[in-house]
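Q: How would the C-alpha cells look for this protein?
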Amino acid sequence: MAYQEVAMWEILNVLRRIGRSETITEVARVTEHDRKTVRRYVSIAKELGWVPGEEEPDEELAVRVFKQLRPVSTERSPGETEQLLLPHTKTIRDWLKSDDEFAKGLRLTKVHQLLARQGVDVPYSSLHRFAVKHCGFSDRRRITVRMADTEPGEVVQVDFGKLGLIPDSQKPGHRRTLNALVVTLIYSRHQYVRVSHSKKIPDLIDGLEDAWEFFGGVTERVILDNLKAAVTVADDYDPVFGRVFEEYARHRGFVIDATRGWHPQDKPHVENGIGYVRENFFRGEQWLYLEHVQRAAIRWCLSVAGTRIHGTTRKRPLAVFENTEKAVLKPLERERFDPPQWVQCKVHPDHCVTVCKALYTVPTRYIGRQVWVRADSKLVRVFYNGELIKIHERRPPGRKSIDYDDYPAERSVYAMRDPDRMIRQAREQGEYTGRFTQALLSGPIPWSKLRQAQRLMRLGKKYGWQRVEEACRCALDYDLINVKRLEGMLLDGLTARESEPEQPQMQLFPQRFERPGGSFSHHGGKDD
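A: Here is the predicted structure in C-alpha cell form.
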C-alpha cells in the first residue's frame, strides 16, 4: 500500500471545516480524505482538549495532531463523486436513452433513485453535471427560475474584467491593458471598482480590502468564479482554493463560494456589472494613467452607478445600501491583510534560503532540508514540518538577513568579522591571553588575523588554558606576536617536560662508626 505524509495544513483545513459545523461526509468529499481519516483527526484533536464550535483551531493544535499521526493512504484520485459514477457510465446512458424511437428514456430524477438503490448515493446536482459531461444528457425542457433574494449583508459577487488600454506611466509612448475588479453587493446592487494591470492574488486581495473599506464592512459570503488568483484546482465538484486566499478568508471571516467554470450565469450580477463598467464608465474617455482611472472609478461608483435606478430592483443602489445594508455588514475588526507569498525551498550549505531574490539564514541542523517560507511585506517566516523555526525582517532583492547565532559557535565570530568579540572571549581565559589577542588584532585590518585568533582558542582547548596563559606571558615579554611561534613554544615546553630526566633520590645509609654522644665530651683530668 502506498503512503504519503499528511501535511499540517491539511489537518488544519479539516479541523476548521468541522469547527464550522460541516459534516464529516462533506469534509471528506471536499478534502479528498477518507471519512475514517477525518474522524481520526477530530478524535485526536478532542483528546488534546479541542472543543469544536467553541474555539478556532490554530496551527499549534494542528502540529500536535500532526505529530501523533502516521502516514495515511492517498490512493484516491481527485473528484470523488465523479470517480464513483464512472463505472456506471454505460448504465446511466442506457437509462437516459432508449433504443425504441417511440419510448422515452428515464428522467434523471428516476436514474438518481435507481442508482441509490444500487448503493451509489450521490447528490442530484452532481449526477446532473456528470450526465451532461459523460452521457450526452441535455435537458431540453430546462427552465430558469429566479433565486430567492439574499439577506442584506449576506453575499457579494467578485470578478475581473478587461476594460481596455491606457498609457503606461513608466514607459512613455506605450500602452498597457487595464483590468477592473468589480465587487457587487447582491442585496443593494451597490458596487466598487478597483483597476489594475494584472489579475494576481495581491490584486484580488488588495481590491477586496479596498472594497471592504469602501463599504464599511464585510459580507458573510464571497462568490467568485475559478480565478487563478484564488483557486488552485478548478473543479465543478471539489474546487481547491489557494493557501493565501483561504488564509485571507479566515482573516476577514467570510466563506468562499466558487462558481462552476464557464458558467457566467452562476454570478449574473457581477457579470452584467463588468459590461456596465466598461461601457458606461471607461469607453469614450481620455485617460492619463492608472491612478487617474482609479480616482474617477470611485467617483463614478458614488455619483453615477450608485444613484441610477437599477433595472431589476427599480431602486437606487446607494440609497438601499445606506438605509438597509450598511448597518448589518460585519465590522472591520482586524488590520488590513498583508498578502503573503509562500515558497518551498531548500536550505543551502551556507545556512541560507533564497526568497524573492534575497537571502535569509536558518540554524545549522536544517541544512539540506526542504522548508516552507511565508514572506509578506514586513516579515519572512520559515516553517519545517509545520513548525515555525525562524523569523526575519523582509529584505529587498539582492540583500540578505544574517543571524550569526544560526552559525556554529566556532565559525560565527569569523563570519561576523568582529575582533572585539574575539578579544573579549580571550580575556575570559586569562589576562595575558587577552593582551596577546588584543596585540594580534590591533593592526589596520584586524579581521585578516581572525583565523590566527581562532587558532589560539583551539590551542587553549588542546593544551589547557593555564599553559597557554604562561606561553602568552613569555611571548609578550619578547614581543613575539605570532600564534604559530606560540604553538612552537607550547610544543617545546611539552617535549621538554616529557623528556626531562628524573632526579635521583638521595638514599640515607646507616652510619657504620656511630659513637655515643659522651665520646665527644672532654672533661679536664687530674693533670689539668
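The two ends are 128 Å apart (CA to CA).

Confidence is low (pLDDT under 50) at residues 1-5, 72-78, 412-416.

Upvote if useful.
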